[in-house]
Amino acid sequence: MLRDRPRVIPILIFMTVFALFAPLELLADRSALEVGRGKEVLASVGDDVLLLSDFRKMLSALPAEQRDKLTPDKQKTLVEDWILTRLLSAEAERNGIAKRAHVQSALRKSRMDVLSKEMLRDITSGIVVTKDDVASYFEAHKELFAVPETVHLHILTVGTHEEAEAALARIGAGEDFAAVAKDVSTDKFKDSGGDVGVIPKSEKLPEYLRVAFYLRAGSTSDAIRCKDGYCVLKVTEKSPSRNLSFDELTPKLKAMIENKALRVKQAKAVIEARMRLEKKTGVQRHLDLLGASEK
After folding, report:
1. Nearest of 81, 86, 100 to residue 46 by alpha carbon
2. Distance in angstroms (rounded) separating the CA atoms of residues 213 and 240
3. Cβ distance 159 to 229 under 8 Å?
4. Are 250 and 181 contacting, i.e. CB atoms less than 8 angstroms apart?
5. Looking at the structure, do residues 207 and 256 belong to the same domain, yes or no?
6. Residues 165 and 220 reside in one and the same domain
């Protein structure tokens, strides 16, 4: 069991922070006198009680990849940490540690962090996105959902420039590209007559394949130097790039856009709240003390 502890340190830190400062809905410290019948008490330290239901709520708030690694033994380790945190905290109070200046400063900061996060949650929790919000976000970012230009590509590959020119001569004399490719090509598309299929335009393509996007549909390239010698390209079809409509998107992309639109709306609400609070409270900045801004 001791060997498992280092792997859950991030979770233990999460647990410790929440055990000290979490809102009641995540990890409730209940007085033993307030726990009603039928409640499953997982652990108690004096009057502080950890209910099984509260523990499960805390686990459900963890990222799935962490939650899936929590075996029963590791969950027991978390409970032991909950107990240890309260034992040490109570003893620190009795020994006057809470009165130390740096401890009071850390407690104030932790309190501010928790309260500010709860305030942000209050500001953003009631925000919903409408169809207009989603449409506006999609319209402003539709270039991200564009379908790139594509070509239906055919290729034949040979070892030397002379062999490539000979293949071109046969094609120029009227022989079918696919027949010539099956006869002389040395690449993996030989058996399919050089048919590569439809490929999208991309910067990741080798430079010799990018030539295909400069060819007209139905045309054949000159001999091109490639990694395996020399190749000849033929384009049978071309489709220009175009922007997809929202209805053409997959459900996953639609959900992503809705989430992005929600985040934009939430961020706007936070900015508005900040401006209102700064006006209400009075804020001064002297950022010039940090030096000149980088250009």
Report:
1. 86
2. 10
3. yes
4. no
5. no
6. yes
Token pair of 183, please? 């006869």
Q: Residue 65 — pLDDT band, cuts 50, 70, 90?
A: confident
Contact 98, 92 (CB under 8 A): yes
CA–CA distance, 67 with 204 (Å, rounded to integer)? 38
The verdict on pTM exceeding 0.85 is no
Neighbour tally for 144: CB within 10 Å: 12
Q: Which two tokens stand for residue 123?
A: 């500001």
Residues in the chain: 295
* DSSP per-residue string spanning 212-267: GGGSPTT-B---EEETTEEEEEEEEEEE--EEPPGGGS-HHHHHHHHHHHHHHHHH
Backbone dihedral region of 253: left (phi > 0), alpha (psi from -120 to 50 degrees) or beta? alpha
pLDDT tens figures, 166-221: 999 999 999 999 999 999 999 999 999 999 999 999 888 999 999 999 999 999 99
Domain that holds residue 52: 2-94
For residue 155, how many other CB atoms are within 10 A of its CB? Answer: 24
pLDDT digits (tens, 9 = 90+) for 232-268: 999 999 999 998 899 999 999 999 999 999 999 999 9
Structural domains of the chain, count: 3
Structure tokens at 152: 């239906």
**Residue 32 maps to a domain:** yes
The answer on 133 and 161 residing in a single domain is no
Please give the Cα distance from 186 to 26 (Å, whole number): 65
Element (H, E) at 10: helix 9-21
